[in-house]
Design brief:
Elements (H helix, E strand, L loop, with lengths): L2 E3 L6 E3 L3 E2 L16 H13 L4 E3 L8 H10 L8 E6 L6 H15 L4 E6 L8 H13 L3 E7 L3 H9 L6 E7 L8 H10 L2 E5 L20 H11 L4 H13 L4 H9 L5 E3 L6 H8 L14
Parallel strand pairs: 3-4, 4-5, 5-6, 6-7, 7-8, 8-9, 9-10
Antiparallel strand pairs: 1-2
Helix pairs in contact: 1-2, 1-10, 2-3, 8-9
Bound molecules: NADP nicotinamide-adenine-dinucleotide phosphate.
Length: 296
């Protein structure tokens, strides 16, 4: 496993972390395709393999994901884990933050969160107040770092301008071979010492090679989301990825992840529904791609 500093916090995070939206969410077939026991074993095995960064959110499974992560944490050394969660954008007022944070701490069974992120921007609430409240939470020891998610560049700059004693540690954005809009943010963050946390690094499974135009993921909700996100999917890219990966003896998922984390300052948080997924994905951290290896 390779590690990097999270922003300028001095906190060390694995290049491949673990996304846990899958835990508790019907969207991902919770209770049918995976259950609590599997979820806990994924977190524990991930830790054994060097994954020290776990990402969750209060909204995932309406608290179930945080509860499950909390349960798994009891069997691990809390201090060895970098725990990240997110607050719903409808709660980013001062009192909303205080309430949401206490709720997350309770479900996670911990006294502090390493990275507390605003899940999405919300133009209805003043960002200045939210940032100042979060800064106070750092000083009171309930969080160690502030992160944002889905923030465009201008809003990141605005959020940073309201912080006087700390900086934003990270921006969590969608970034994968099929969706590269975040590259402007990646460049900005690299220059400013802010970590980019790439979500959906496998394009919700499309880049694993197991799907195609005639074999799409199950579930109407998932198909609709993929259609809204990716429109007409570029299957020729997926096919090229499959061939390029085979050429160097790795899987498409590993190549897709290795591509996302190829540069300093970017980590990825693939979700996993089985131990096999996890083990395959973790290996991507040790793959360093050369430029021409991405060509089929
Ligand atoms: N900040 C945000 O707004 C935001 C938004 C989305 C996600 N996230 C975070 O990012 C994490 C990851 O993103 P994501 O869950 O959207 O998508 P992803 O990581 O791109 O894809 C995960 C899915 O791909 C499939 N998969 C994973 N590894 C595989 C492997 N080795 N072989 C075959 N299939 C594999 C599994 O689904 P199937 O087996 O069903 O195909 C798995 O659920 C989430 O868990 C969450 O923590 C954040």
């Amino acid at each position: 496993m390779r590690y990097e500093e999270l922003g300028k916090t001095g906190i060390r995070v694995s290049k491949i972390g673990l996304g846990t939206w899958q835990f508790g969410a019907s969207y991902w077939g919770w209770g049918k395709e995976l259950d609590e026991e599997t979820a806990i074993s994924i977190i524990r095995e991930g830790f054994k393999l060097g994954v020290n960064f776990i990402d969750t959110a209060e909204v995932y499974g309406w608290g179930e994901s945080e509860r499950i992560v909390g349960k798994a944490l009891k069997q691990l050394d809390r201090e060895e884990i970098v725990l990240a969660t997110k607050i719903l954008p409808i709660r980013i007022t001062s009192s909303g933050i205080i309430r949401a944070l206490r709720g997350s701490l309770r479900r996670l069974g911990t006294s502090y969160i390493d990275l507390y992120q605003i899940h999405w921007p919300n133009p209805l609430f003043p960002l200045r107040k939210a940032m100042r409240t979060l800064e106070r939470e750092i000083e009171e020891g309930r969080i160690r770092a502030i992160g944002v998610s889905n923030f465009p560049l201008k809003l990141m700059e605005e959020a940073r301008s309201y912080l006087s004693r700390h900086d934003i540690a990270s921006n969590q954005v969608e970034y994968n071979l099929l969706k590269r809009d975040a590259e402007e943010i990646v460049h900005y963050c690299q220059k400013e010492g802010i970590t980019v946390i790439a979500y959906s690094p496998l394009a919700q499974g499309l880049l694993t090679g197991k799907y195609g135009p005639k074999k799409m993921p199950r579930g109407i909700q998932r198909r609709t989301t993929l259609w809204l996100k990716y429109g007409k999917i570029d299957w020729s890219l997926v096919d090229g990825l499959r061939k390029a990966a085979a050429k160097i003896g790795i899987t498409p998922a590993q190549m897709a992840l290795a591509w996302v984390i190829r540069e300093r300052g970017v980590i990825a948080i693939p979700g996993a529904k089985s131990l096999d997924h996890l083990r395959e994905n973790v290996k991507a951290a040790d793959i360093e791609l050369e430029g021409n290896q991405m060509r089929p």
